[in-house]
Specification:
142 residues, three-stranded antiparallel sheet, alpha+beta, Immunoglobulin-like
Length: 142
Amino acid sequence: MNARGAPRASRLSRRGLLAGALGVLAGSARAQLTEGAAPGPFSPLAQRAIAQVLQGRSAHSARVHLEIPRLAENGLAVPLTVRVDSPMSAADHVRTLHLIAPANPLPQLARLHFGSRSGEAYLSTRIRLADSQHVLAFAEVT
């Protein structure tokens, strides 16, 4: 149990984490803005942005939690919250958090850098979306 009374997540060694996931997680990262919208083929620009984040690594849905409304009244200010389950210790912390909106003219919404002293990997903001689409969140961990 941690100080908040929540069960402590199992710890992985750095080597195990690097070998297993190569430090990239994509969790509840595909949130739909509209009911039943399927993630169609991404534009070449979006595919490049995703490939640049992944760098040949595979993504795993595990510790990234993305909250975004299924239907937004205004695409100019869509509320978004991203939280990554991480102890934020020197051995296991989020280094970078990437947000990608594939249907936007510029797909990469944000790239945030964290350190082991950040306390928690958490972001709450409003984003601009060009169309109804899936939003992707990727977290690079050590």
